[in-house]
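WARN retry 2 of 3 for item q-0093 after timeout on previous attempt; input resubmitted unchanged.
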Amino acid sequence: MFTFEMNNAVKDNDISNITKKSPVVEIFTAMVKGEDLSRFGAKADKAVDYIKELGRRASETSDPQAISELNTIRRFAIEAPILQEMKLLSVFGNYTALGWDETPEREVWTYGDLGARVQAPHGDVQFPARTKNTYNVPTFTVSAGYQVDYRQLAIGDMTKENEGMELVKIDMHNKATAAIFKKVYTAIKNATGITRVIENAGLTKASVDALLTKLRRYGRVTVTGDYALLSQFTPWAGYVGQINSNTITGISEAQMNKIAETGLLGMYNGSVLAEIQNPYNEFAMNAAGNDYATLLPQGLGFAIPSGAQSPVALFTRGGLTSFTGNDVKSGKQLTRFDLEVGCDVAKGMEHEIGVIYDTNLGGLD
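OK item q-0093 returned
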């Protein structure tokens, strides 16, 4: 995964006095989107002039106050869309947005049998007792950033701002998704007791059917993963029949239409097949060295029942923070945005999610 280090980093909150409710934040957002500013009235001209002046000071004198204020404005402008993107990760389970003063914590209830042998008139019975296990969930930091040409800001050109802020939103979502994929896999793979894991060189219909049958007892199952993984389900959807001595194989028209539309089956034996978009990581090569690596492991997928409470919990803590500093490798001045993310699979409930890993496709090594 692509990362970058910064030296002389300054946390923008330590310098800037801009707040989320400052009119300049809303007007800056509208400028980046290319929207008409007339609805802001007289505030628009004042805010535009202020932003241009910050760009001029940042460009000509590298004024740390101006750079910090611009970064803080950017942070507030993209924070809400990024947190909205994080909510999309709730396909795995429950998502909670926490404040800075809150700690990610799980409360997991389990049942233990206590023998009650006195009350039973016809034999011994057992009454289950509920016990609660509480533990903290560690967080990890997802980062993204870009280099800004402050000279363009000084003349009110927001083209690169638009591109850079969109890059940050996409990059942070993709990195968070990749980290969560691997954390869920590791938690289930390393769990003690019963687990639902398929890990083979290539998928087989028999092993997948057996996994889905077990998970179906928790509710209808959604299988998520890369196109290369889910496409292996398609040949299993056909039917086989016989007329006289001739064997007939085929596939229904409805299924053929779905494959023609999306390249994949939409359903397989009552389970939903949901492709996870898996873009290239253009900063890394694949194991063979002949193409870019993908951001997510191509061979990793999950089978998630929808009828029960998911054992996976996702958190974001606080909001974005922004830093300004010099890239250690290139020496260029960059702005970096950080977000704390937490992911946990409830201990003792790992068996409620299935793991499908095709080692031929790989991605975890």
